[in-house]
Amino acid sequence: MHNIYFLLIIFLISSCSYISGPDGFFPETADDFFNEEIAEDLKLPSSSDNLELKTDNHYPYTEARPELDEISVPKPRQIFSSGQTKQVQLRKLGDLLWMYVETLPSTSWPIAKTYFETSEYEVLSANPNSGKIVMNFNEGIQLTASIEHGIKEASTEVSLMFTDSNNNELIDDNYLQLQQTELQKLLQYFADSVSTFSGTSLAAQNLNDRKKSKILSVNEQTIIELSLNFDRSWSAVSRAIDDAKVSVNDRNRDEGFFLVSFVTEDDKKGWFGFLNFDDDESSTNLDLSQDPEFQIFVKENSGKTRVSVISLKNDLEGAEELLSEINKLLT
Fold first, then answer.
1. CA 142 to CA 312: how far, in whole Å?
2. 307 phi and psi angles, rounded to 5 deg
3. Distance CA 296, CA 309 (A)
4. DSSP letters spanning 232-283
5. Helices (H), 46-167
6. H or E element that contains 307
7. 8 Å CB contact between 301 and 216
8. How far is CA 217 from CA 64, 66, 80, 212, 306, in A?
9. What is the sign of the dihedral through the CA atoms of 98, 99, 104 and 106?
10. How many CB atoms lie within 10 A of CB 324?
11. CA distance 99 to 180
12. How many CB atoms lie within 10 A of CB 24?
């Protein structure tokens, strides 16, 4: 038995040598470099042989640059505090009538929905994604309430529209009077509810993101873009300028611009001191005694209106501050 084990060990040792030894299938190659020989020099064609070397440039360089006409870059939204009071107002511009509420649309939506569901009108549909509540006003006439984000941060605009069976808007004097009557009743309901109502609709959260104003940078200039027509935008900017109590040297609605100037009084009122915040109501009237310092443009394009400010005295920082204050006071 011992002889068998001995023969087996000898066989294994010889097998390892047979596999990996110098004459085995897998010999050691660590010392092979000692047997290397230097090869002859390569013989390359001379330049007279018209040798062409073809290469591929996978990363070509070109100095051509695309033409950039106008790039609109969104800027961070400015956040303003509206205090503890939540205003509810009825506003009118020509035949346009709407209700302004100082609260988010996601809060205004459940209040408006509750009001119309408990009213005398049958609610046909209420879509929180579009902010539309459609009701059957009377035979063949529908009443649609639209709840939208306003211009100002955390604000809501509610408007009413009467349509016939063909979905044509009814804008004669009778229906305009009905519109005002219904909005006045809705305004009273909001005034009694919005200050104490703390709820919000998760389904209507998307309405909060559809603000009617954006701050953009176009060709390195800051502008305000309003999702409104020119008439509404001009009125909003005029009201903001008056609220800021700046001196208006000239205003031209047809050309869409304001010329304004400020009384600084050595900036004694701080960072926004040059805006001349005071209690003199006459400061909002036309003041032709001073040279204008800034020009405010209101221009409509493709259904939207852009508001920009340029300095007539190369005060770029002042122009930015003025535009920021206008944005703060837009409603």
1. 52
2. -115, 125
3. 5
4. HHHHHHHHHHHHTT-EEEEEETTTTEEEEE---TTTTT-TTGGG---S-GGG
5. 105-117
6. strand 304-311
7. no
8. 25, 20, 20, 17, 11
9. negative
10. 16
11. 10
12. 13
- The answer to whether the beta carbons of residues 144 and 134 sit under 8 Å apart is yes
Which DSSP string do the residues of 98-146 spell out, in sequence order? EEEESS-HHHHHHHHHHHHHTSSSEEEEEETTTTEEEEEEETTEEEEEE
Rounded to two decimals, the pTM is: 0.65
- The rounded Cα 182 to chain-centroid distance in angstroms is 33
Residue pLDDT, tens place only, 223-275: 999 999 999 999 999 999 998 888 899 999 999 999 998 644 334 344 444 44
What domains appear along the chain, each with residue ranges and CATH number?
Answer: 88-208 (3.30.310.80), 212-329 (3.30.310.170)
For the beta sheet containing 294-301, the strands, ordered from the edge strand earlier in sequence to the opposite edge, are 72-74, 213-218, 221-226, 304-311, 294-301, 257-261, 247-252
Look up residue 245 and give its amino acid: K
Residue 225 · residue 217 · CB < 8 Å: no
At 278-319, the pLDDT tens digits run: 444 444 455 555 688 999 999 998 889 999 999 999 988 889
Q: How many Cβ atoms from other residues are within 10 Å of residue 123's Cβ? A: 16
Q: Find the length of the chain.
A: 331
Amino acid at 295: Q
CB 134 within 8 A of CB 142: yes
Nearest-angstrom CA–CA distance, 180 and 92: 10
Query: Do 150 and 225 contact (CB within 8 A), yes or no?
Result: no
